[in-house]
Amino acid sequence: MKIYIKHMACVSCKIVVKEALKELNIVPLSVELGEIETQCNVSEEEVKQLDKIIKKAGLEVLETTTSLLLDKIRLVIVDYVYHSDDKPPTNFSEILSSKLNRNYTFLSNFFSEITATTIEQYVISMKIERVKELIMMEDISINDIAFKMHYSSVAHLSNQFKKITGVSPSHFKKLKEKRRVTIQELIN
């Protein structure tokens, strides 16, 4: 089950939420900025108690309708990023507005308030993650990836990639053979 938290924008907020969950004996699968995922369903009463506890820290549980809109925005973003090669390049704000029948400014302000990041930053992060996947899983050139992901040029993709990851796409591609070792592999 997912529970969305308003104003959750820092590591301290995550600690407050984790402590509140522990106090209520709710086991989280993950606690991320703006979002909690639990192993099992949480009762309405438990959600109210969680809200009461975290309000002391300036946080707030979002209503179901609010969390549904957030999920819809994220789904449109995922569809846009992962299926962009199936569609002609279009301004994302137009796509989002038309799919959700809402004004983009409203959606953008709503998203920023809940997640503490802008839609544009979220889309860029998602695109870079998709680019990483394409580099890791497919034998495809950076030029083809830039075209597939609707970047205006390879240079634009490279600049954005380096800004987010700290390395160029070509350097990342060279590193794909040197994958991270898991903790379990180190222990054994």
Shape: globular
How many structural domains?
2
| Distance between the ends | 34 Å
Say which CATH homologous superfamily of the largest domain is assigned: Homeodomain-like
Q: What value does the average pLDDT take? A: 85
Indicate the CATH architecture of the largest domain: Orthogonal Bundle
* Class inferred from helices and paired strands: alpha+beta
Order of helices and strands: EHEEHEHHHHHHHH
What is the C-level CATH assignment of the largest domain? Mainly Alpha
Number of strands: 4
Instruction: Please tell me how large the radius of gyration is.
Output: 19 Å
With strands numbered from the N-terminus, the spatial order across the biggest sheet is 2-3-1-4
Helical residues, percent: 55-70%
Task: Tell me the fraction of residues in β-strands, as a range.
Answer: 5-15%
Keywords:
188 residues; alpha+beta; Alpha-Beta Plaits; Arc Repressor Mutant, subunit A; 2 domains; 10 helices; 4 strands; globular
Quick summary:
By secondary structure, the chain is of the alpha+beta class.
